[in-house]
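Hello forum,

I keep getting stuck at the same step: I have a sequence, I want structure tokens, and every attempt I make locally crashes halfway through. Rather than fight my setup again tonight, could one of you with a working pipeline run this one for me? It's a single chain of 188 residues.
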Amino acid sequence: AGVARSSTVHAELFRLKNGRAQWDRRTLVVVDEAAMMDAKVTGEVLREARLSGAKVVLAGDDRQLGSIERGGLFTELKKEHGSVEIRQVTRQKVDWQREAAHDLSDGRFEEALRAFARNKSVVWTSKQDELRGKLVERWAQDSSVDPSSSRFVFAYTNKDVDALNKDLRAVRRARGELGEDFVFTTKH
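Reply #2:
Ran it on my machine without issues. Output:
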């Protein structure tokens, strides 16, 4: 049958409430990262499923980040109804990366970090600016080899995000990938 539609939980609930989507007994709703849903949203999804006869599969890891609002239902539902754990890693294609993913999942962080370090996938420095420079340099090299592949750069603070965005945009501008900047204001 295939996937009929993919969206955020909030968008799907909005469609349901406004008659733009309909669930029935043949509907299977799969919620990824379900441990991050707050109790209210989890309740809404389960209520809509009960009323329509749809089935819900909640996928997630309650050892990761929880919801911002009151949550914890995922763990309780798991205890009440049971769960299965997927142990076969398919995202990582290289053996050492698969092993490191298992190490991380099982809480063996030092072993995982050592594997990343052995394979030159971790850069160590005590200076933030030096680290940002190395990250931008590595990103520039990687993205020039295969520009169509997705790359993600994460930072902890908005200040760091802004600095990284500025540096990465400078690389893209130097390559001629970006046009002129535009500034526009919204009323929100």
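The chain has three domains: 9-81, 86-122, 123-177. If your local run keeps crashing, start a new thread with the error log.
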